[in-house]
Amino acid sequence: MSHANGSRSEPGPTRPLVLALTSTPLLTDLLHDLLDETVVVRHFPAGGADLDGLVRHTRPDALVIDSHEDALELSAVAYELSVPLFQILLQWHEVRVFRDGDWDPVLPIESPTTIRNLLLGELFHPSTGRPDPLSVLSAQRKNGMEPSRTT
Amino acid sequence: MTPPPTIYVRRPRSAKRPPQVLADDSAPKATIKVVIADADPVMRAAARIALDQQPAFSVSEAADADGLLQVAAVTRPDVALVDIGLPPAGGLVAISSFGVDHPLRVVLWDYSPDPARILAALRANVYGFLPKTIAPAALVRALSGVAAGEACLSRELTSDLIEELAKLARRERSRRLAAALSSREREVLELVARGFGNREVAEKLFISEYTVKRHVHNILAKLGEPSRRAAVAAYREARSAQDALDALGSVEAAA
User: Fold this and answer.
1) Distance separating alpha carbons of residues B163 and B161, to the nearest angstrom
2) Burial class for B192, CB neighbours closer than 10 Å (0-12, 13-18, 19+)
3) For residue B188, what are the contacts with CB-CB under 8 A and spacing of at least 6?
4) How far lies B78's CA from each of B75, B82, B121, B147, in Å?
5) CA distance A112 to chain B (A)
6) A88 touches chain B (CB under 8 A)
7) At what angle do helices B228-254 and B183-193 cross, to 10 degrees?
8) Closest of B125, B136, B134 to residue B156, by C-alpha
9) What ipTM does the predicted assembly reach?
10) Is B43 an interface residue toward A (CB < 8 Å)?
11) In Å, what is the CA distance from B11 to each residue of A32, A95, B32, B59?
């Protein structure tokens, strides 16, 4: 998967990019903590101008949002680019995923690992052709590389 | 003798950033014990991650009011970060169990704090009120400040609170002035507020129109208002202030 930051040209496997467009910076730090070493998480504030353009240029592998307004704005571009869109409904302790043009049923968030499992399950599903996280990590460590971080 | 229950408190991982001085430089850097009381495991984990970045913090968690009381009894935290909606009956009710002389400093947090709730919290001897959209570094600073005896309110909430206090002050002034009116004057003002002219007021109260005009003159003087319209506006503010006081009394009684 290519990224606007040029990691396409780096040797070895790259990590998927998750774009977190949230109004809750604490949530973004949690995502970093949950997904560290397997995924790159980049945060931009929710509700900003031209989020559609931001997504088109950064070409993330997954989007995380926490507002209904951004869900409405981004579902079209997510569908067009085949990017799964995760809406975390913090106040209701629920999460839902938009993929293939439709929203999956809402799921309760039992714990932070619910979010992690959903994201990783989507990002590393065999259909994506992406190597599984463990083999990425072990290949990098074997070659003496630190896990690649995109800028 | 039965040993006390074991509560595991995770020590912070090695700091990813250099430790920050939490109080003045001359004071010994004591550990700040914080309990995060929130039913939402995501926000508990998120707040913990922010605080774990600082070696000075020692963090424990609770998911409801009972859990908060148990943790407070065992770990004796310095600061509690409590969700306004903490089950079963809300954060304000949960902290009312501690009593005003309890050393625990409570900070409430919420997604969309409104000024009325903030005021209610401050009346409950809470040290601060934070939005859940707070940045991690700001959360650390806020709780460090509270541990050092400071209060914490974000800039946005402070402006909202100042506006709410100004509104309350205006209403309170109106309420005090309205209390100086006689019962007849209040009757006259009530009818004027409903849009009746002097003649209609006189008919309804079985008094002369001249007497109504005299009452209106006295009302304007007592309220310090220049016109009927201004007097009606002041009267409505006074009614609103009384309703708000009555409602606040109900909230406090329920707590």
Assistant:
1) 5
2) buried
3) B201, B205, B212, B215, B216, B219
4) 9, 13, 18, 6
5) 5
6) yes
7) 110
8) B134
9) 0.76
10) yes
11) 20, 30, 12, 7
Residue that the structure tokens 């309350």 belong to: B168
Q: Please report where in the chains the tokens 């997904």 appear, as a residue.
A: A35
The two tokens of residue B73 are 């009894």
Which residues on chain B are in Cβ contact (under 8 Å) with A27? 42, 46
User: Could you read off the pLDDT of B139-185 as tens digits, one per residue?
Assistant: 999 999 999 988 888 777 777 778 777 777 777 777 777 778 888 99
Contact B43 A26 (CB under 8 A): yes
| pTM of structure | 0.67
Residue A68 structure tokens? 């209904």
Q: What angle do CA A62, A64, A65 make, to 5 degrees?
A: 145
Residue A64 structure tokens: 């995380």
The predicted-structure confidence for A86-105, as pLDDT tens digits, reads as follows 999 998 899 999 988 899 99
Q: Calculate how close chain B gets to A80, using CA atoms only, in Å.
A: 30
